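WARN retry 2 of 3 for item q-0093 after timeout on previous attempt; input resubmitted unchanged.
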Amino acid sequence: MSKKDALNSAAVIFFALSLCTALIFACHSSAQARFIIKFATVAPEGSTWMKHMRELQKKLKVESKGQIGFRIYPGGVAGDELDVLRKIRIRQIHCAAFTGVGLGQILPMARVMDLPFLFRNYKEVDLVRKKLEPFFETHFKEKGFDLLALAEVGDVHIFSKKPVRRVSDLSKLRVWIWSGDPIAKETFSSMGVSPVPLAMTDVNTALSTGMIDTVYVPPLGALTLQWYPYLKFMMSLPLAYSTGAVLISRSFSSRMTTDLFNLLKKDFHQTMAELTEDLRAQNKET
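OK item q-0093 returned
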């Protein structure tokens, strides 16, 4: 091979390597989402909630053409709802699914949906939710959050290791209430109960050690949270309907383009509607 041919071959190899390197970096850059949303929930992996969240994760990636990343922290790994709220405020978490307990820390008036014996059926629930959603949306925004969608938690029942046939039976039991839940505290106190406040993430241990023997939770929640092995009895009359919501910090959402934020909100609304349908059917079966 002549010197000229060798130089030409070297030039071709150098060009090919440069092109491959450029392509690798281009592919790597395109794989990086513009907005990576860190999302927390107490719902455990494998639950109905998480099944829908995993589907949403894939949907957002496809519909945003990779611009939205959705990183999920399930099963309370980011802490109880009050821990998650603190982490949102210091920007460690951006978005979360909250029950009324977490929502009430931000906007106390949101707890109106959780008042005991307020609703008789889901038709009433859906009507009130539809009317109140724009109102809540405005007031959460004033508190620094965007409401992506209202969410279903479901009818809450009292579960216990011992039968509860009358209100006076509750005073003999060790009844758990979620720390930071003033409605539960007032409700059980009015029944003559001295409740035991604990984080939700501590309930399983408290049931196994006998620290508590009575809880309030939707039937499907008792199953997915693995509380049911300790609980033999359920009151047939629901204590309350429990609502929830998915919120995202405005410190994060305000950086998103309008089209991407609208896509995020649309997909969450659709996912929560599908989740609600599944939860109602499964709670009935459970």
